[in-house]
Protein backbone atom coordinates (compact mmCIF):
# COMPACT_ATOMS: atom_id res chain seq x y z
CA UNK A 1 0.00 0.00 0.00
CA UNK A 2 1.23 3.51 -0.72
CA UNK A 3 0.24 6.83 0.92
CA UNK A 4 1.28 10.19 -0.60
CA UNK A 5 0.34 13.86 -0.52
CA UNK A 6 0.43 16.41 -3.33
CA UNK A 7 1.24 19.04 -0.65
CA UNK A 8 4.50 17.54 0.67
CA UNK A 9 6.84 14.65 -0.08
CA UNK A 10 7.69 11.88 2.37
CA UNK A 11 10.33 13.28 4.74
CA UNK A 12 9.69 16.90 3.69
CA UNK A 13 8.31 19.92 5.54
CA UNK A 14 4.55 20.25 5.89
CA UNK A 15 3.40 23.58 4.41
CA UNK A 16 2.27 26.18 6.94
CA UNK A 17 -1.34 26.25 5.67
CA UNK A 18 -1.84 22.72 7.07
CA UNK A 19 -0.64 23.73 10.56
CA UNK A 20 -1.98 25.70 13.53
CA UNK A 21 0.09 28.66 12.32
CA UNK A 22 -1.74 28.68 9.00
CA UNK A 23 -5.27 27.69 7.99
CA UNK A 24 -5.17 24.39 9.95
CA UNK A 25 -6.51 22.51 6.91
CA UNK A 26 -6.13 18.76 6.62
CA UNK A 27 -3.69 18.06 3.76
CA UNK A 28 -4.64 16.34 0.52
CA UNK A 29 -3.83 12.63 0.67
CA UNK A 30 -3.92 9.91 -1.96
CA UNK A 31 -3.43 6.19 -1.54
CA UNK A 32 -3.23 3.10 -3.69
CA UNK A 33 -2.74 -0.66 -3.66
CA UNK A 34 -4.99 -1.49 -0.70
CA UNK A 35 -5.07 -5.28 -0.34
CA UNK A 36 -8.00 -7.14 -1.85
CA UNK A 37 -9.25 -8.29 1.56
CA UNK A 38 -9.56 -4.74 2.93
CA UNK A 39 -13.09 -4.09 4.20
CA UNK A 40 -12.38 -0.61 5.61
CA UNK A 41 -9.54 1.86 6.10
CA UNK A 42 -8.37 4.03 8.98
CA UNK A 43 -6.24 7.15 8.62
CA UNK A 44 -4.18 8.28 11.62
CA UNK A 45 -1.88 11.24 12.18
CA UNK A 46 0.31 11.65 15.23
CA UNK A 47 3.46 13.34 16.48
CA UNK A 48 5.84 10.99 18.34
CA UNK A 49 8.19 13.93 19.11
CA UNK A 50 5.72 15.67 21.46
CA UNK A 51 7.24 16.45 24.89
CA UNK A 52 4.66 14.36 26.80
CA UNK A 53 4.74 11.42 24.36
CA UNK A 54 2.79 10.66 21.20
CA UNK A 55 0.27 13.43 20.38
CA UNK A 56 -2.75 12.37 18.31
CA UNK A 57 -3.72 14.90 15.62
CA UNK A 58 -6.32 13.02 13.58
CA UNK A 59 -8.10 9.71 13.17
CA UNK A 60 -10.65 8.94 10.46
CA UNK A 61 -12.23 5.50 10.57
CA UNK A 62 -14.71 3.28 8.74
CA UNK A 63 -13.42 4.65 5.42
CA UNK A 64 -14.88 2.53 2.57
CA UNK A 65 -12.11 0.62 0.73
CA UNK A 66 -13.12 2.16 -2.62
CA UNK A 67 -12.14 5.64 -1.35
CA UNK A 68 -8.59 6.42 -2.52
CA UNK A 69 -8.05 10.06 -1.56
CA UNK A 70 -8.94 12.97 0.67
CA UNK A 71 -9.00 16.46 -0.83
CA UNK A 72 -7.63 19.51 0.99
CA UNK A 73 -9.66 20.11 4.16
CA UNK A 74 -11.52 16.78 3.89
CA UNK A 75 -11.74 16.84 7.69
CA UNK A 76 -14.56 19.38 7.34
CA UNK A 77 -16.79 16.65 5.85
CA UNK A 78 -19.34 16.02 8.60
CA UNK A 79 -20.18 12.59 7.14
CA UNK A 80 -16.70 11.23 7.88
CA UNK A 81 -16.27 9.35 11.14
CA UNK A 82 -13.52 11.22 13.00
CA UNK A 83 -12.19 10.68 16.48
CA UNK A 84 -11.45 13.25 19.17
CA UNK A 85 -7.82 14.35 18.90
CA UNK A 86 -5.49 15.41 21.71
CA UNK A 87 -6.61 19.03 21.22
CA UNK A 88 -9.96 17.66 22.53
CA UNK A 89 -11.73 18.31 19.21
CA UNK A 90 -13.21 15.88 16.73
CA UNK A 91 -11.41 16.01 13.40
CA UNK A 92 -8.04 17.33 12.29
CA UNK A 93 -5.67 19.38 14.43
CA UNK A 94 -2.65 20.47 12.43
CA UNK A 95 0.99 20.41 13.49
CA UNK A 96 1.53 22.80 16.39
CA UNK A 97 4.78 21.89 18.18
CA UNK A 98 6.09 24.00 21.06
CA UNK A 99 8.12 27.03 19.94
CA UNK A 100 11.86 26.33 19.92
CA UNK A 101 11.40 22.57 20.39
CA UNK A 102 12.99 21.69 17.05
CA UNK A 103 11.40 19.82 14.17
CA UNK A 104 8.54 17.46 14.97
CA UNK A 105 7.67 14.57 12.68
CA UNK A 106 4.05 13.90 11.77
CA UNK A 107 3.22 10.33 10.85
CA UNK A 108 0.22 9.92 8.58
CA UNK A 109 -0.65 6.22 8.61
CA UNK A 110 -3.22 4.43 6.51
CA UNK A 111 -4.39 1.08 7.89
CA UNK A 112 -6.27 -1.45 5.79
CA UNK A 113 -8.56 -3.52 7.99
CA UNK A 114 -10.19 -6.92 7.70
CA UNK A 115 -13.38 -5.58 9.30
CA UNK A 116 -16.02 -3.26 7.86
CA UNK A 117 -16.48 -1.04 10.90
CA UNK A 118 -14.88 -0.39 14.24
CA UNK A 119 -16.98 -0.86 17.37
CA UNK A 120 -15.98 2.42 19.01
CA UNK A 121 -18.19 4.91 20.82
CA UNK A 122 -19.31 8.10 19.05
CA UNK A 123 -16.81 10.34 20.88
CA UNK A 124 -13.90 7.89 20.72
CA UNK A 125 -10.39 9.28 21.03
CA UNK A 126 -7.76 8.81 18.33
CA UNK A 127 -6.04 6.35 20.69
CA UNK A 128 -9.28 4.35 21.07
CA UNK A 129 -9.61 4.13 17.29
CA UNK A 130 -6.00 3.05 16.83
CA UNK A 131 -6.20 0.40 19.57
CA UNK A 132 -9.33 -1.13 18.04
CA UNK A 133 -7.98 -0.87 14.46
CA UNK A 134 -4.72 -2.64 15.40
CA UNK A 135 -6.74 -5.82 16.06
CA UNK A 136 -7.72 -5.97 12.37
CA UNK A 137 -4.75 -4.56 10.38
CA UNK A 138 -3.83 -6.41 7.17
CA UNK A 139 -1.66 -3.68 5.60
CA UNK A 140 -0.21 -0.30 6.52
CA UNK A 141 1.32 2.66 4.68
CA UNK A 142 3.08 5.65 6.22
CA UNK A 143 3.84 9.19 5.07
CA UNK A 144 6.00 11.40 7.31
CA UNK A 145 6.23 15.17 7.18
CA UNK A 146 7.85 17.56 9.61
CA UNK A 147 7.14 21.02 11.00
CA UNK A 148 9.05 23.35 13.33
CA UNK A 149 8.10 26.57 15.11
From TrEMBL:
InterPro entries: PEBP (IPR008914), PEBP-like_sf (IPR036610), YbhB_YbcL/LppC-like (IPR005247). GO terms for molecular function: protein kinase inhibitor activity. Keywords: Protein kinase inhibitor. This is YbhB/YbcL family Raf kinase inhibitor-like protein. The lineage of its organism: Bacteria, Pseudomonadati, Pseudomonadota, Alphaproteobacteria, Hyphomicrobiales.
Amino acid sequence: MKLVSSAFADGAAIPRRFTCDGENLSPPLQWSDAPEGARSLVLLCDDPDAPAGKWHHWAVYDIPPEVTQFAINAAQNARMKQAVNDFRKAGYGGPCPPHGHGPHHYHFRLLALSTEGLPVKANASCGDVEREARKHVIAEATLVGWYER
